[in-house]
Amino acid sequence: MATTRLDRVRVARVALDLLNETGLDGLTLRAIAKELDVKAPALYWHFKDKQALLDEMATEMLRRMAADLGDIPDDGWEAALTSAMRVLRRHLLRYRDGAKVYSGTRFTDTSYAAPMEDWLRRLTSAGFTPGAAARALLTACSYTIGHVIEEQAMGPRPDEGDGGYDLAARAERLKDFPLAAAAGDELFRSYDQGFEAGLAAVVAGIGATLRDTPGA
Description:
single chain
């Protein structure tokens, strides 16, 4: 049996390593306990259920990306926000189902506070009201997380080569809807380019609708 002291952070780190093998659906407290060489009930001392574990895993993911988020230069809010969302996407893609784990969780400490404060300061310094800055940050993050959820669900997994969505079969099913059929290449291929195109639209929209908005 393992003699190294268990704590929440250690369990979360092992769970993130195991996630790439099992995916979110296959990640169980029992599987994590086996990896740690302990009995499953030992983990319930730290996590009452799987959601509590996911909260800690998301917090650990944020801790790992915090330094990269802080290293982005102040070269205009549009460029800086774009770079930040690239960092978020890159970190989420490091884990199988990483965006699903990250989405909808509640952070277990205040690791998020310093990066959030920094980004709200950058945006308010660029002319956003505090409310508009918060909405801008949430909008950009929501787009990025949502994109990665779809990307990881529909695209090939790292261990499965060039798989992913069968566009030929999709096109055949939609042969009576030519525009919808042709959209498959844009929707389910070239995720890097697709992410960049969508992110540019989101950032432009933020600038057009949220910056300098009275009473936001």
